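== Protein entry: sequence and backbone fold ==
=== Local backbone shapes as whole numbers ===
==== Amino acids and backbone structure tokens ====
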Amino acid sequence: MNRISALAFFGLLASLLGACGSETQSAPGDESAAGKPQASAVDAVPAAPATSAEALIAALEVGNLTSESAVAAYLERIEAIDRQGPTLGSIIVLNPDAIEEARARDAERAAGELRGPLHGVPVLVKDNVETRELPTTAGSLALAANDTMRDAPVVARLRAEGAIILGKTNLSEWANFRSFDSISGWSGVGGQARNPHHTDRTPCGSSSGSGAAVAALLAPLAIGTETNGSITCPAAMNGIVGFKPTVGLLSRSGIVPIAASQDTAGPMTRTVRDAALMLNAMAGSDPADPATSEADARKADYLARIEAGVDGMRIGVFRWAEGDDPRISAAFEAALAALQSEGAVLVDIADFEPDPILEASGLDLLLMEFRDGVNRYLETTAPAVEARTLSDLIAFNDANADREMPLFDQSIFVAAAEAPDLDDPEYIRIRDGIKQAAGRDGIDKLLAAHDVELLVMPSRRPAEPIMPTQEADDAPNAEEGADDEAETDETKEDGPARVGAGWLGAMAGYPIITVPMGDADGLPLGLTFIGTAWDDEKVLVAGRAYERASNMIRMPTFRED
């Protein structure tokens, strides 16, 4: 194929990133007027029951709300904001049994039979994650009949804690791994998802609907998935919290795959405490997913430790990934001051040279793993699904081009179909080389050389309008058409400098969090922390310490101009 560089490829999404914000939220659990949506284009729509899952749980516990009334309120708000009004397009389908399930949770609560901390709390699920009551489409019409009638383990774990599956969220089709020219947030099944802060701006992707829905208070919690940027990008662009755990902490069974070496699910929430609450339920080993063999031994009670703080913690300030936008730098300096006020010891890191294999072969790795993974997944789909191989998907898209390819092609699919098999020695070389370059010789080496425990940096640039991009300027590995941004001087001679390095943590399989960092001209900004493998708790603690000191989450305005 006519192959652009992996770095250039990952930049295709950079011009699609966008959002904006207004009022600052009050502290988690505070239901004061400051924590509620302020007057906007949709100020007459039903109010959200709470601004966080913890606030909702507190209201349920004291009897100020029932699960039934909370679910009903979210459904009314979804109708007013997602289906009408701003028409965010963040949710593909709702669970028709959600109200009935809420009533059942209320009856259990009245009988003193709580299932767990999430009892009666509604959760949205990205539509590449299986739920027993709804089809799992990955946004593709080829999987419209994929009603597997099974829960992915991460969903089953949430359900076991008492959570109610509210519906399935829109996404960049096939997690934005179908075309080099894809538009983030668009799918054949769900259409175009939009950013609730500015509806002409991208919600990013591929967990576009999950990010937009949580930002718009259509549910307190949502599941996202990430290979390289799919949780952290929409979280940052929609002004919420997104946590990508260490690969192997959460099961990937029942999730439409991209790349086994990097795929993971993760929480998308309005607060770090909510992310920890959600992670507590989702983490754990799965016999069907060998990558999770250590999960049971490694997982912790993340919520119990979340307030440990960063006093005395040495954190590397990754200036290499700061960029040159003065608006971002000003917000970043304020964020660093907030961390220092919490006792963090900050160490500047200006120099870093990524191993060339990350740019040269990052995309090749995903292409090879995708073909193998998607073929295996298609073998397990519902009987009504006709496509059973990647070649079948390509044929389906060609036959239904008017519905599946009105905006962009399937060039990634075609490239993946031509990629080497996983028993090819070149695959082993690339897989192991990338893991070492991003992990041991990348993040781990930076941490050791500067005697720091975590890296901190801006998450990415402010969002751009929803439109195809003709320029490529991002990072060395590709998912979702190009979600994470981190240019090198060699690939961006005259363009803006790199912002963020979430791609490095994604390629290493290490934990990453993005937390709201204010805004640039009303467009949300995020602050990213990255740690080494299995340091999920430390990353969450740092994110919470910053959140506590800064409180920068913005409420959506649904601005249109």
